[in-house]
Every structure is written in C-alpha cells, then in structure tokens.
Write a structure and sequence with these properties.
3 helices, about 10% helix, mainly beta
Length: about 220
C-alpha cells in the first residue's frame, strides 16, 4: 500500500519511552505498565493486554455534576500495552507536575494522567454560584498530565503588579500561588443597555501562570461535553 497516508509522518513508530508522550498534535500515546487514568471515552486505539474500568468521581465529583452539569468522568486503564487518547481532534499537551506543585485545570481539558498524581475537586474562590467554572480539578504530586485545548493555548505570566483577567469560559488552568476573584468590567447601566457581552471575568493575581484557550465554550458545546 502506497500514498501519503502511509508515509512516516502518519505511521506509528515503536515506543521510545514508558508512560505518556505526544504522538502528534491531536493524540497522546501512553505505554502502560501497571495503571493510569484517562477521560472516559477518550481511548481511540490500544494494543497489548489492557483492561478499562470506569472510575467513580466520589462525593465531590457528584456534587460538581449536580451543580454545574459538568464532571471529570474517568476510567482506569490497567495492564501492559499501549493506548492512544484524543478528544474531538483538539490539540494535546503534556504538563509535568513535580513534588510541591499544584495545577488547577478545568475538567473539560483533562485527557489522561499518571496514577501517581492526586486530584481533588475544588471550588474557584470568588466565582460565586453564577460564575463560570465554579468547580475545577486540582492536581498535585509527581507525574504527567495530558491536556486538550481548542487551538493553541496562551500561557500568560501573572504577577502582583500585573494581574490577568480571563473569560471564565476560556480559562484552561493556572499554577499554584495565584488567587482568584470575580471582576465586573461593566456598570449596571451598561449591562441594561446591552453591554459588550464580557461583563464578568475571573481575575488572577499573585505569582504564576494562567493558561487560556483562544475560544469560548458555547452553551450548546458545553452540554455536549
């Protein structure tokens, strides 16, 4: 069989390292030797002796789903073999979480992660009950975290002198050491007149980085997720 489809650019090569690697811009490969965790339904191919088991979210996860309609539905992948993960052809990235680090990320952007990482559901301080992204997942420990993002993300430094204001539907995550609060950029009078459509943002201050995607989630797409 010949043709561009069968060129080396698309052909899967033997694994060069255990664990998580970026196969291409839209897919992550995981060489499993034991256990790892992934978003339910994200596996697009696998080989070897692997078992897939749905993993419960616990009380915190059920609360998040009840309040926001979102969640972080996970599956455990166990055994020995290789699996490939993707989600709606979104771009894939890997974050190395080191001991002492914490990375807060929106559940819709989580693709897969090492079993050595711990995660918890956390409320976004200052967001209030009407704020977008009321709940997020906080990862800590030591390991790798695979993320998906619509388009190429913006990684923006945050400092005490220069806080960053982000759309709550566009924020992917942020590093430890940042504080969050809601910021209203329009007056009540402006909102009554129609406003700009960007009435409330999440303000991040402190020292660290925030990751923003170059698109916003529409209500229809959020329901699909």
């Amino acid at each position: 069989m010949k043709g561009d489809l069968f060129s080396s650019a698309h052909m899967v090569q033997p694994a060069s390292a255990p664990g998580m690697t970026v196969e291409n811009s839209k897919c992550i490969r995981y060489v499993v030797n034991g256990e790892m965790l992934a978003r339910q339904g994200a596996m697009v191919a696998h080989r070897g002796s692997l078992q897939f088991e749905r993993k419960g979210q616990g009380v915190g996860g059920m609360l998040k789903r009840a309040v926001t309609g979102e969640g972080l539905p996970l599956m455990a992948v166990r055994g020995q073999g290789e699996a490939w993960f993707a989600h709606e052809a979104q771009n894939c990235f890997v974050v190395d979480v080191e001991a002492g680090d914490e990375f807060t990320v929106n559940g819709r952007n989580v693709l897969c992660f090492d079993a050595s990482l711990s995660y918890r559901i956390s409320t976004v301080k200052g967001a209030g009950i009407t704020g977008g992204g009321l709940f997020n997942s906080v990862f800590s420990g030591h390991g790798r975290l695979g993320l998906v993002c619509d388009g190429s993300p913006l990684v923006m430094p945050v400092s005490a002198q220069y806080p960053v204001y982000v759309d709550t539907d566009a924020v992917v995550g942020w590093t430890a050491g940042l504080q969050t609060s809601l910021h209203r950029s329009q007056s009540i009078g402006s909102m009554l007149r129609g406003g700009s459509g960007e009435a409330v943002q999440l303000m991040l201050s402190g020292e660290g980085h925030v990751v923003v995607r170059p698109s916003e989630v529409t209500p229809q797409k959020a329901q699909q997720h």
